[in-house]
Structure formats: structure tokens, C-alpha cells
Automatic annotation (TrEMBL):
Keywords, alphabetical: Iron, Iron-sulfur, Metal-binding
Annotated source species: Intestinibacter bartlettii
Pfam family for this entry, one: Fe_hyd_SSU
Name of this chain's protein: [FeFe] hydrogenase, group A
Domain 4Fe-4S ferredoxin-type: 140-170, 183-212
Keyword Metal-binding listed: yes
Length: 580
């Protein structure tokens, strides 16, 4: 251990600890802006670009995030001289920053705004030179505004180190430095997967989701066209934090009520389609297993993962399940089944909106193959943050609103669907049904929880015995972890070895959709992500039915509309193809 003093307090830390982290151990908070460390996912951004965390260490001013604690070191964090320096640093950042807080989407959750308030900055002494920097609205998912970028490099670290996609990096030099893409290509034309993890670590408004709330208000204003809305599994736990509730609080009935209060005509559940996904995906797996098809089967519900697979591993797309994501199974069922059977409306006489914890879903809904006759199945996909903004601007008090139930029949789901929103959940849900498909027996209540694939490690593997066959499964979250599995699979195939797994679940966001690129900002607090995951497991535990094949409304849908699992209509509405 290394012994030092910080503001006169003795502290002992492991070798390799920086001063900023050492100070936290004795409850001394050093103001900081660019620094971010998320141990659980191996994210470390300590490039010391902003200099806000300056401290005096043995007589020298140093950035505390990038300076390691040393034996006998004496650190001062808050002398008048240091505070004055810090203010100067923040004023310099502000001198080159648009002064448009009141119209900036990030207002209220901006790290730069917070630090300016915290340091009590009242005026900016420097009239800085301004450079107009680039903006990029080329994609359906992400907006980049480099005028608001403070060059903290968090997005670059996320994209390169955690996601291993590598589309963002510093370009140009000196005052002209910007974060950009290779050859300043539009993001939409790069290998960006639209995972949105860069948005989640951006401290300012430089990276945000593409805002579609205006289009949503327009749909709601058209009274002649009913608007159906679906909410993703992870939304019901994510939204709570936007309204001051504890992370992980289950707000299902409150979101339903808020959506009705906003004017959505039918409030349905993506979970219903998650149960449907399991019916199709388990069936596809069992077919591949028993008839010698391509194994491993890889889950296909995460659109950023699908993008990643298509662009980085086109040789492996044949292993992806052909099942659409629940979002994209739900919409055709709403448009071609519910609209016709219940509302007596044509497919283009209704609108379908989805609320997702994700920004890649905005891209997914624009994929041409997820529509028919020029009508895309889903009109709009909004993030949890966008929904929260709509609820706030309508003056709806989510915390105290009286809970309501989903509409029927596309609103009922089993517990298997809820856990889709957390890493390992799709795999667990699929096993609950695949087991019964193969053995014709039901797993008992205490056997349906596959604990080995729960938890927040990046890669979790297990072997499950199904009717005498050892089924090897793995769940990975983050694209860096996906890359490890894909490199391994590619190497096994090239060497003629049997692939290591039968089923691979991949979610692009570390932890799964509970940490999606459209969720409330956590500022790197991974405990919030874990609490959201725990919330989903609680919902599952308390549901009367916990296996997708027990959902009576799904059985009815097959009887009335889809026919056989994996049959003609199922293929038409529930499956898709990929590009390589
Ligand atoms: Fe997810 Fe989904 S679980 S991707 O993780 O599969 O976004 O929550 O909606 O579609 O259901 C996100 C979350 C979904 C889909 C579902 C899947
Ligand atoms: Fe990289 Fe994901 Fe951001 Fe695209 S969305 S730039 S892949 S981190």
C-alpha cells in the first residue's frame, strides 16, 4: 500500500491508484470533467484534457486523474489558489462553447454546466476565439455537434476500447482539433453500429440521439389515425430515474398511464413480441440442432450487434437467427393483425411508435426489409430520454400518476420477456422454451432460473443438459466482448474445429438494454445499471407465467393469424435477412 495525505488526511491506497480516486476513499471530492472510470466494463478515460481536476501535489499543480499517488505525497485539493485555477480552466472551456444552455437538449444533465454551477462561475473573463466546427446529422440515430465538444475523448475511448468499433478519433491539430471520423465521412456511411454508447459517456450536448419528439407530437395530433405504442422491456425500469425515483424502480403501470395521458390510443408491450420471438427463435434453434443446421445460433434482436456482425463479420451472418427483433415483430402484428381484426383499419390507417432504451432501434425501423408495399412497419422509435422529455413537457407527474394496464391482446407477456432487457436474459428465456420443445416436459419453477448466465460480467458461459445433450451457451455484452467470441468462432471454423457453443447471445451495450444508448444518463455509475437489471428479474419472479410458450394470447395469435411456428406467415411477418 502507498501512504499519502490529502488535505492533511492520511490515506493508504494500492499502487497504481490516481490521486482523484485516492481522494474519494477519504470522501474528498475533486471536481472533474473529462475523467471517467467504469471498472465493471473496463472503461478508463484519464487523458487529462480538461485540467479541471488540478491539485497541488508536493508543490506542483498536476491533474489528479492522471497522476498516481506516491509514498509520502502531500496533496492539497482546495486551496484558494487551486480553486481560482480551476475556475479559470472552466471559463476557458466556456469561452469556446455556445452559450445556449436553455435550448440545449442536454440542459440539466450536462457535465460542463454542472461544473460551472458548482464552481460558482458568474462571468467569463475571456473573449475566446471561436471556430465553427462540424455537425453530423447523417444517421437516423445520432446527432453530433462538435461546437459543443470539449475534447474530453470519452466517446473515443468508448468506441475504440470498449466497443472496438473505432470510428471516432481526434482529427486535426491544435485549436482546430475535433473528434471526427476517418476522412470526415458522414457517420451514416461509416462502420458505426449506432450502439449509442458514445452518447452515454458524452458530458455535454455534443453527442445526442436524433430527436424525433416533434414527429411523435405530430402523429398524436392526427386524430383520425389511431397511434399504437409499444414499450421495450428495459423502459419500465429505466424511466424511473428521469423522475427522481430510485434506480431499478419498476414503473410499468405508470409509463402506461403516462402514455395514455399523452394521447396514445393503444398502449401495448414489446414484451408480447419478446414472447413471440422466443417461440420462433427456440423453434429455429431446435430445428438447427436436430436437423444439422448452422450452429451456433446467434441472437439477432440487438440492432447494433446485427450492424456490427454485418460490417465486421459478414462471413458469420449466416449464424444469426433469422428472427426479427421483438420491436420489429411487434409492429407488423399491430399493423396487419390488430388493425385489421380489432379496428377494421387498413395497414396505412394506423401509426406504430416504439419506446426503446436504444438509439440503434431508430436505424432498425428504417431498414427497408422491415416493411411492406412501401410502408415501414414502425413509424417512429423514441428513446426513454425522449419519452421522459415528452412526459415532462405535458406536465404529467409520473411519480404520482395512477397506474394503468396495457391494452389487450398485445399487452400480455410472461416473465421470460421482461428479462430480455438485461444481458443473458434472451438466452435464459430461450432455454426455458427450447427445453420444453425438445423434452416435451416443463422445467420446474426452481429450475427455470439459469443463474450462470445472470450477472454483469462481459462474457458468461454455461452448459445445460437438454434430454441428454450438453447444450453449450454463452452471453456477451459490449461489442468488444462480441469481437472476442466472433474471433474465436472464426478461428474454430477456419481450423475445422467444432464451434465451442450452440447458442450465442449478444447485446451491444455493456449490461444489455438496461444500459442502452437511449437510457437516462448514469454518468458512469454502473450500480444504476445493475439496479435496473435487478428490477427486471424482480418483475419476472413475480409474474404468474414465466415461460413464453405459456402465453395464451400468443397461442391465439398463432391460431388466428400466424399458423405454424416457423411457417409461411411466421416467416413473412417475423423473420428477416441480413446483408454481407
Ligand atoms: Fe431491448 Fe429487445 S430487449 S433489444 O435488449 O430482444 O432496445 O429493453 O426492446 O426489440 O424485447 C432494446 C430492451 C428491446 C427488442 C425486446 C430484444
Ligand atoms: Fe462508436 Fe457506438 Fe458511438 Fe457508433 S454509436 S460512434 S459504434 S460508440
Amino acid at each position: 500500500l502507498i501512504n499519502l495525505t490529502i488535505n492533511g488526511k492520511a490515506v493508504a491506497v494500492e499502487e497504481g491508484t490516481n490521486i482523484l480516486e485516492a481522494a474519494k476513499r477519504v470522501n474528498i471530492k475533486i471536481p472533474n470533467l473529462c475523467y471517467l472510470h467504469i471498472d465493471d466494463i473496463g472503461f478508463d478515460n484519464s487523458c487529462a484534457s480538461c485540467r479541471v481536476c488540478l491539485v497541488n501535489a508536493d508543490g506542483r499543480l498536476v491533474p489528479s486523474c492522471a497522476t498516481l499517488a506516491k509514498e509520502g505525497m502531500k496533496v492539497q485539493t482546495n486551496t484558494p489558489e487551486i480553486i481560482e485555477f480551476r475556475k479559470g480552466v472552466v471559463e476557458l472551456l466556456l469561452s469556446d462553447h455556445p452559450q445556449d444552455c436553455y435550448t440545449c437538449t442536454k440542459c440539466g444533465s450536462c457535465g460542463l454546466q454542472d461544473i460551472a454551477v458548482q464552481l460558482g462561475i458568474k462571468k467569463i473573463r475571456f473573449e475566446g476565439e471561436r471556430l465553427e466546427k462540424s455537425k453530423d446529422n447523417s444517421s437516423f440515430s445520432i446527432m453530433r455537434d462538435n461546437d459543443k465538444c470539449i475534447l474530453c475523448r470519452r466517446c473515443e475511448t468508448m468506441c475504440n476500447k470498449v466497443q472496438t468499433v473505432g470510428v471516432l478519433s481526434g482529427i486535426n491539430r491544435g485549436f482546430s482539433t475535433e473528434i471526427g471520423t476517418f476522412f470526415e465521412t458522414d457517420l451514416a456511411k461509416t462502420e458505426c453500429t449506432f450502439c449509442g454508447q458514445c452518447i452515454n459517456v458524452c458530458p455535454t450536448g455534443a453527442l445526442l440521439e436524433k430527436d424525433n419528439t416533434d414527429e411523435a407530437w405530430e402523429l398524436l395530433a392526427q386524430k383520425e389515425k389511431p397511434v399504437m405504442v409499444q414499450i421495450a422491456p428495459a423502459v419500465r425500469v429505466g424511466i424511473s430515474e428521469e423522475f427522481g425515483l430510485k434506480p431499478g424502480t419498476i414503473s410499468t403501470g405508470k409509463v402506461v398511464a403516462a402514455l395514455k395521458a399523452l394521447g396514445f390510443d393503444y398502449v401495448f408491450d414489446t414484451n408480447f413480441a419478446a414472447d413471440l420471438t422466443i417461440m420462433e427463435e427456440a423453434n429455429e434453434f431446435v430445428n438447427r440442432l436436430t436437423k444439422g443446421g448452422d450452429l451456433p445460433i446467434m441472437t439477432s434482436c440487438c440492432p447494433a450487434w446485427v450492424n456490427f456482425c454485418e460490417s465486421q463479420y459478414p462471413d458469420l451472418t449466416k449464424y444469426l437467427s433469422t428472427c426479427r427483433s421483438p420491436q420489429s415483430m411487434f409492429s407488423p402484428i399491430a399493423r396487419y393483425y390488430f388493425a385489421d381484426k380489432v379496428l377494421d383499419k387498413k395497414p396505412d390507417e394506423v401509426s406504430v411508435v416504439s419506446i426503446m432504451p436504444c438509439v440503434a432501434k431508430k436505424y432498425e425501423v428504417k431498414r427497408e426489409e422491415l416493411g411492406e408495399d412501401g410502408i415501414l412497419d414502425t413509424d417512429l422509435s423514441l428513446t426513454v430520454r425522449e419519452l421522459a422529455r415528452m412526459i415532462k413537457s405535458a406536465g404529467i407527474d409520473l411519480e404520482n400518476i395512477e397506474e394503468e394496464n396495457f391494452d389487450s391482446p398485445l399487452g400480455y407477456s410472461t416473465g421470460a420477456a421482461d428479462i430480455f432487457g438485461v444481458t443473458g436474459g434472451v438466452l435464459e428465456a430461450a432455454l426455458r422454451t427450447a427445453y420444453t420443445d425438445v423434452t416435451k416436459e416443463e422445467l420446474s419453477d426452481d429450475a427455470i432460473e439459469f443463474k450462470a448466465v445472470r450477472g454483469f460480467e462481459g462474457i458468461k458461459e454455461a452448459t445445460v443438459n437438454v434430454a441428454g445433450t450438453d447444450v453449450r451457451v454463452v452471453a456477451a455484452s459490449s461489442l468488444g466482448c462480441a469481437r472476442k467470441l466472433m474471433d474465436e468462432l472464426r478461428a474454430d471454423l477456419a481450423a475445422g474445429r467444432e464451434p465451442k457453443y450452440h447458442i450465442i447471445e449478444i447485446m451491444a451495450c455493456p449490461g444489455g438494454c438496461v444500459n442502452g444508448g437511449g437510457q437516462p444518463f448514469t454518468n458512469g455509475d454502473y450500480e444504476k445499471v445493475k439496479a435496473r437489471g435487478a428490477g427486471l428479474y424482480t418483475i419476472d419472479k413475480n409474474k404468474p407465467q414465466r415461460k413464453s410458450h405459456e402465453n395464451e394470447d400468443i397461442k391465439k395469435l398463432y391460431d388466428e393469424f400466424l399458423g405454424e411456428r416457423g411457417g409461411h406467415n411466421a416467416h413473412k411477418y417475423l423473420h428477416t435477412h441480413y446483408f454481407d
